[in-house]
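pinned: reference chain
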Amino acid sequence: MNKNYQYLSDEHAQYIKDIIKEVENRDKKYEIFGAERHKYKLNETVSLEWVREFEQKYHVELPEEYVFFITKVGNGGVSPFYGIVPLSMDDKYAKFYENLSKESMYNDNYFQICDKCSDYFENEENYDEEYLDKKYFELSNELYDRIKDGVLNINTQGCTFDTLLVVNGSRKGEIVYIDWNLEIENPPFLTNMTFLEWYQGFFEEIIAGYSDYNYGYYMFGNEKELIEKYKTADSETKSKIIWSFYKFENIEQEVLAGLHRNVQPDVIEIESGIALIAVVGRGMKSTRGTAGRIFSALAHARINVKMIDQGSSELNIIIGVKEEDFERAIRAIYDIFVITKI
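pinned: its structure tokens
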């Protein structure tokens, strides 16, 4: 595979097809998430004239990388998760494109919108429950009214999670992850990746031997590159770098030494075969005993908790259990909150 190509050239398109083929050859049993559906197949490309007609019809100028992809690689097909949805001129799909020309909320002011939403929950002890419920409803509607503007839904990740491509504004061409449950404390996630960085990076990471679990949330790069980035990163980026080490199946001793030098922990222990479960809810911060209920349910099911993590917002708890205990742990937590409602 030749990576010495000119950006958005025919050689670039061929490189993408080559890395798809390489991953397909390694995944004959379709064990990578979503592969059983897309089976590493690309749809036929469309012409540039067809794209311009689509743009004129919906009053939009599609991102350059996306246009390159559908005209030189494939109009949909294999991708991270369950595959890319093809662009269509058929009027029966018009409802999916009617908001493309509207201004996207995913711009430089996006985080101010998120902060506005989360402020009420950071300081919820100052408000009564009736006020919080009313404000939650207002903010949810405000967010929902704009969340589909200026984006193309290109991909489903399963359940209520989708992948959006921003088609206008300061983040035009970037990828956003969204959970359509639209919990205020879990707003759409900006990956800070362009379409091709997201698409191409997926196959390159797999070829490098890294896990595809939670793809898009972790940073690109090998162990040594991430250690180098950590040295000059801000606190938020440092946290993301540490989390990115979950994608590595094995961590070299040299990398562990680098972590010791730069992070200076008391001790580092590597344990494989751990599954992570996130329990999320806006009422978690103000409800006493939530963590106790979770751990009691797990203890009753004879499940050992290997790891506990909670963010400063106190809106979620992340629990690590052995992989073989994952299904039983999910059932135990679901039972305590939904079935028995203790």
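why pinned: The radius of gyration is 22 Å. The CA atoms of residues 71 and 129 lie 53 Å apart.
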